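Service request form, structural biology core

Requester: graduate student, group of Dr. S.
Request type: structure prediction, single chain
Budget code: on file
Notes: please return the result as structure tokens.

Sequence provided:
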Amino acid sequence: MNVAGLLSDYSGLNGNQITLNNTAPQLNIPDNDQTTLTITPSVTKDEGNTGTTSFTFTLTLNKATGSGFTINYNTTNATATAADNDFGAAGMTLNFSGTAGETRDITILVNGDTKIEGNETFFVDLAAPSSNFSNRLTVPLSRAVGNITNDDV
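Core staff response, request fulfilled:
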């Protein structure tokens, strides 16, 4: 900017009516964007008679975060139990880079059998994100349900 030209435009002013500040202006933009990490609320499948059936729960980050983060998951017994060999207990830490639309899958193996029994359920619980980005990362559903449909006659 030409300061001399600017002052000449206001040459009719008296004294110190114009003050020029040569410091660079600063603009602070607070980060107030919200993002959500969702999990498939429920998965329902037949148990099968032998082998295993994969129950896959997908976590999805809807918007980008400022950096990566982790979140833990664990299976929890309900009417289906790991001790009764209904499913394989699992738990670990999932890593997210923080990219919008990023997904991670949790696969729980359900064991097939020929027992005559009712339908059963187990849970996948999410816990302890390494950062919630000053409460801007939310996990609205921290428990998903695995519904095992008994297919034995």
